[in-house]
Design brief:
Elements (H helix, E strand, L loop, with lengths): L2 H24 L12 H6 L8 H9 L3 H26 L2 H4 L1 H8 L3 H18 L1
Helix pairs in contact: 1-3, 1-4, 3-4
């Protein structure tokens, strides 16, 4: 991928994120049926790692941090990691901060993230 294409793709992603955040800000997922319900929760009665993410984003945008943590703590703590990944991949962060990319997205990162997600999934349904 060329640098120009990557930057354009990154800009498109940022624009889509801004539009999505605006929608989450003005529409409350808890009271509006526009947002989909979790199929895993509907089928099993158990919460998946993503359950509550829509409500948590809405609460974060309204600066209700404790409510956001109650809805989905994993998503609240994962957002900076996701934003870091977008920055490193699409906005030249790899070139400016190669060590940062190696630390957070190196050889073992996928396995570590998988272990964290599965642990959160189990713990949120046990406690």
């Amino acid at each position: 991928m060329s640098k120009r294409f990557k930057f354009g793709l990154g800009a498109a992603i940022i624009i889509m994120i801004i539009v999505a955040l605006y929608i989450f800000y003005i529409i409350d997922p808890e009271t509006n049926s526009l947002f989909p319900k979790c199929p895993f929760l509907l089928a099993t009665g158990l919460e998946c790692p993503g359950c509550g993410s829509q409500r948590a984003i809405h609460q974060l945008l309204h600066l209700n941090f404790l409510s956001a943590l109650r809805y989905n703590a994993f998503m609240v703590f994962a957002m900076p990691y996701i934003f870091l990944g977008v920055y490193l991949e699409y906005f030249g962060g790899k070139m400016r901060h190669p060590r940062l990319e190696k630390i957070f997205f190196g050889r073992w990162s996928a396995l570590i993230v998988l272990i964290i997600v599965i642990s959160y999934w189990i713990l949120r349904n046990v406690f």
